[in-house]
Amino acid sequence: MTLYDEQLTRSAGLGPQRSPVRAGSATYSVSSEEDLLTVRHAVRAATVEAGFGLVDQTRIVTAASELARNAYIHGGGGSLTIEQLRQPPQQGGRRGLRLTVRDEGPGIPDLESALTDGFTTGAGLGHGLGGAQRLMHEFSVHSTTGEGTTVVVTRWNGR
Amino acid sequence: MNGPLSAPGAPAGSSPPPPVPQPAGVPILRLGDVLVTGLLNELDDKSAVAFTEELTTRIVGDAARGVLIDISRLEVIDSFVARTLMELTTMARLLGARVIVAGMRPAVAITLVELGLQLTGVETALNAEAGLLALGWQQMPRPSGEAPRDSLR
């Protein structure tokens, strides 16, 4: 089952046409609590590099923290990939940051419920997935029962 | 009641000390019946749990009636940290202490609201000073010719 939001209409991994140019990427393991901190540092550094302001930095790092924690707790560990994006000049040339969080856990049987605030099966508040969706401009989640979950989120730098 | 700023557990005998939870790396100071502490930016899950245990133990041990938690160094509050703060507040209330969380950064407040978290039930203050004031502490009166009085509170 796949849910999409806004313009992101392709699942992760497929290079979209008419796409922003990837200006670099890095992948981090998410399989321990220390990794969660490492990922947060890396995402923070990437937001600074992409020129985001302080509030946007906080939004993106918080979303990354939610998604990475989901992958660690519910997915039994996974990975987070950070991509620097730049739109073609004719589309505004904005910079952006895309986070792809993958795990090979049990998957999310009921995505609609998982995106509803307050829904939780773990130790959070149930705002992780829906919250990450609100903090980012583009959001897609692909989950297959028994095979895992991939969440892709992007935020563009408006300036 | 313990003496001021008593170190936890100076063992009387030579028996090995009981296993203590890993401290969160932030001291918990006692000022009268108020505990003052804070959270660091590097709060991972284990530290958060240890902090909860340490703080509730201190509330009872020091018979604290108020707790000030400074969060001005927290650059990110995700749903886990939010949940920790909400649970701590409830636990402290059950133990008879009032918690005030002070010094949230503006960007953190914006993000929390967008995340859908309102820290329901958690009392807040602009900064540590305002929080202490709310917990009954007065600003030390400026010396104005009078003899210094020991009336900090």
TrEMBL record, chain A:
Q: Name one Pfam family in it.
A: HATPase_c_2
Signal peptide coordinates: none
What are this entry's molecular-function GO terms? protein serine/threonine kinase activity
What SUPFAM superfamilies does the record point to?
ATPase domain of HSP90 chaperone/DNA topoisomerase II/histidine kinase
Quote the InterPro entries the UniProt record gives.
Anti-sigma-factor_SerPK (IPR050267), HATPase_C_sf (IPR036890), HATPase_dom (IPR003594)
* Gene3D superfamilies the UniProt entry points to: Histidine kinase-like ATPase, C-terminal domain (3.30.565.10)
Task: Name the domain of life this protein comes from.
Answer: Bacteria
Which terms are listed as keywords in the entry? Kinase, Serine/threonine-protein kinase, Transferase
The Histidine kinase/HSP90-like ATPase domain sits at 55-159
Enzyme Commission numbers on file: 2.7.11.1
Region Disordered: start-end pairs: 1-23
Q: Which PANTHER family match?
A: ANTI-SIGMA-F FACTOR RSBW, ANTI-SIGMA-F FACTOR RSBW-RELATED
Give the protein's recorded name. Serine/threonine-protein kinase RsbT
TrEMBL record, chain B:
User: Biased composition, Pro residues: where in the chain?
Assistant: 14-23
Q: Which InterPro entries match?
A: Bact_StressResp_Reg (IPR051932), STAS_dom (IPR002645), STAS_dom_sf (IPR036513)
- Check the record and name the SUPFAM superfamilies matching this protein: SpoIIaa-like
The signal peptide stretch is: none
Q: Where is the composition biased (Low complexity)?
A: 1-13
List, for all copies, the residue spans of the domain called STAS.
Answer: 24-135
Q: Which Pfam families match?
A: STAS
Q: Where is the stretch described as Disordered?
A: 1-23
Cited PANTHER family? RSBT ANTAGONIST PROTEIN RSBS, RSBT ANTAGONIST PROTEIN RSBS-RELATED
The protein here is known as RsbT antagonist protein RsbS
> What's the source species' lineage?
Bacteria, Bacillati, Actinomycetota, Actinomycetes, Kitasatosporales
